């Protein structure tokens, strides 16, 4: 019996290797992203300094398949960012003024009027159909370029989440509606189980992993951050962006406590795919000091 089990192990092991998504090693890039609009501080695209030598993405937070009541709408997405400031005209203006700028929409988010914005489909087919239709209309109205997945609460199972989100991203890309997609997990067992299932099947259509390193403890050290980064890169390959929260109440490794030192270490090792910040709303009162510093680091200036 022992001999037979060893004989059977080899093809099973090979099948596992062959079916697993390939891990791409991290490489340096000049990619910078920033979430904007979720906290209604009146921040405008034009308030944020844009370094012409980076690949700059604004991420509008958020479009959610809920009403304001809040009631889930099964994939029919509505705008929940500060839409009287961050308008279609404002998108056109910032992109015209800065050819290196693209704008994405993040779907999901944490809450709707202080209630969890749960992923709550009635069925895969209807959710995907509604999501493709409503998001295509929204993306075309605002002339957006990409989509970010930031669900943090779930009522459906991981398989349904994988099918719905994977089909959504694939369809929007195949239809030419978007040119890039990102996901925004953080280190929570349930959240990771959903996003790792999605990654396992659809990593080929996911361009960036906006991992929320600011969800770690506020006393995170530089060495801990680098360890966390390596752990997440081992899961999501070379698409993981370093991140910090600009709010004074944010967790993780802050710029004041060594974030940029850690990024310089990653860059010196050739494994800094980019940086993202949450959020422009919080940075407005501080004059975007850390956004300027992050972009300079990425641009090598």
From TrEMBL:
In terms of Gene3D superfamilies, this protein maps to: Glycosidases
Q: Spell out the Pfam families in the cross-references.
A: Glyco_hydro_18
Q: Where is the signal peptide?
A: 1-26
> Would the keyword Signal turn up in this protein's UniProt record?
yes
GO MF annotations, alphabetized: hydrolase activity, hydrolyzing O-glycosyl compounds
Q: Where does the GH18 domain lie?
A: 30-301
**Any single biological process term in GO:** carbohydrate metabolic process
- What name does UniProt use for this protein? Chitinase 2c-like
Taxonomic lineage of this organism?
Answer: Eukaryota, Viridiplantae, Streptophyta, Embryophyta, Tracheophyta
């Amino acid at each position: 019996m022992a001999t037979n089990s060893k004989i059977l192990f080899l093809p099973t092991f090979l099948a596992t290797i062959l079916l697993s998504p390939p891990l791409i090693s991290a490489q340096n890039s000049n990619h910078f992203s920033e979430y904007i609009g979720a906290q209604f501080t009146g921040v405008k695209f034009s308030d944020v300094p844009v370094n012409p030598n980076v690949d700059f993405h604004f991420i509008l937070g958020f479009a959610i398949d809920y009403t304001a009541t809040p009631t889930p709408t099964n994939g029919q997405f509505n705008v929940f960012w500060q839409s009287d400031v961050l308008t279609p005209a404002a998108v056109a203006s910032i992109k015209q003024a800065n050819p290196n700028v693209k704008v994405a929409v993040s779907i999901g988010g944490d809450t709707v009027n202080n209630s969890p914005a749960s992923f709550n489909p009635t069925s895969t087919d209807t959710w995907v159909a509604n999501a493709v239709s409503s998001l295509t209309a929204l993306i075309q109205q605002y002339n957006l370029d990409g989509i970010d997945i930031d669900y943090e609460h779930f009522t459906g199972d991981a398989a349904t989440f994988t099918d719905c989100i994977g089909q959504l991203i694939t369809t929007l890309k195949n239809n030419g509606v978007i040119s890039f997609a990102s996901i925004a997990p953080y280190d929570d067992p349930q959240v990771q189980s959903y996003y790792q299932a999605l990654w396992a099947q659809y990593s080929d259509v996911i361009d960036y992993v906006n991992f929320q390193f600011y969800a770690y403890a506020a006393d995170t050290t530089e060495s801990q951050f680098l360890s966390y980064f390596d752990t997440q890169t081992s899961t999501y390959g070379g698409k993981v962006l370093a991140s910090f929260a600009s709010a004074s109440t944010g967790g993780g490794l802050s710029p004041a406590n060594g974030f940029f030192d850690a990024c310089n270490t990653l860059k010196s090792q050739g494994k800094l795919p980019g940086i993202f910040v949450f959020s422009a709303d919080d940075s407005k009162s501080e004059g975007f000091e850390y956004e300027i510093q992050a972009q300079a680091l990425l641009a090598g200036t």
